Amino acid sequence: MSSKAEQFDFTDLEKQALAKCQARLKFYQKKLSRQKLCSKRREQTKKKIANLYEHMANIRKNFARKTTRNLVNSDSEIFVLEDLKVKNMTASPKAKLGEDEKTYLPNGSSAKAGLNKAILSSCWGLTATFIAYKAIKLNKLVIKVQPKFSSQECAKCGYIHPDNRLSQSEFVCKACNSTENADLNAARVIAKRGVKLLFGFLGLYNKIK
Ligand SMILES: [Zn+2]
């Protein structure tokens, strides 16, 4: 979702293809776990898995290409992106050992796995790279801003609170009652941060405040 309320998502065909790949991936991974180490069949299964990963990566790459082309070729001159550390977010957390030093404590691994999937499938890193690359070619500006609390901040009054975000899709500010689609609110918060940063560079921020 952009601050102009444009929404970008995979086409139904792309979604179907990705879901099909994921199902097949699951099947082959299960198969792999039952196959003998160093066997020829196991190698074949490994190859199939690698091909599936490559196919999914291509779908995401095409999507990122198409989306960023439309974005950068639009009238917009400035693009503000969240400075997300995708690598850190996708690294799996270390297993924590309990006090008895035998049992492992839950470390939020499965929740993080879900997050990994969401980030990777939305191909954030690729999208950011493509935007920067294409924008520079057209002399357009790309700004990266801190992502902290962007989903909890009200774009209208600036109030930050986790309760502002009622659900994945709904944002209701506890301070000013502003109600908005949560993604759109977050996109506007990010755009605002970009403007603030830019005017800060120019030494103008206090004048527009
Ligand atoms: Zn508010």
Structure description:
With 209 residues, the protein is mainly alpha-helical. The protein has a domain at 149-209. Helices cover 54% and strands 10% of the residues. It has helices at residues 12-34, 40-72, 86-90, 109-121, 124-137, 182-201, 205-208; strands at 78-82, 96-97, 104-105, 141-145, 170-172, 179-181. The strands form three sheets. Strands 1-4 form a two-stranded parallel sheet. The chain has a two-stranded antiparallel sheet with strand order 2-3. A two-stranded antiparallel sheet has the order 5-6. Bound molecules: zinc ion (ZN).
Using brief descriptors, characterize the structure shown.
209 residues, mainly alpha, two-stranded parallel ribbon, single chain
The H-and-E topology, N to C, reads as HHEHEEHHEEEHH
Structural class of the secondary structure composition? mainly alpha
The share of residues in extended strands comes to: 5-15%
Q: Kindly provide the radius of gyration, computed on alpha-carbon positions and rounded to a whole number of angstroms.
A: 21 Å
Assembly level: single chain
Arithmetic mean pLDDT = 85
Largest sheet: 2 strands, parallel
Strand order of the largest sheet: 1-4
Q: Give me the number of helical elements.
A: 7
Distance between the termini: 26 Å
Envelope shape: elongated
Question: How is this fold's topology laid out?
Answer:
Blueprint: H1 12-34, H2 40-72, E1 78-82, H3 86-90, E2 96-97, E3 104-105, H4 109-121, H5 124-137, E4 141-145, E5 170-172, E6 179-181, H6 182-201, H7 205-208
Parallel strand pairs: 1-4
Antiparallel strand pairs: 2-3, 5-6
Helix pairs in contact: 1-2, 2-5
Bound molecules: zinc ion.
Residues 154, 156-157, 159, 173, 175-176, 178 line the site of zinc ion (ZN).
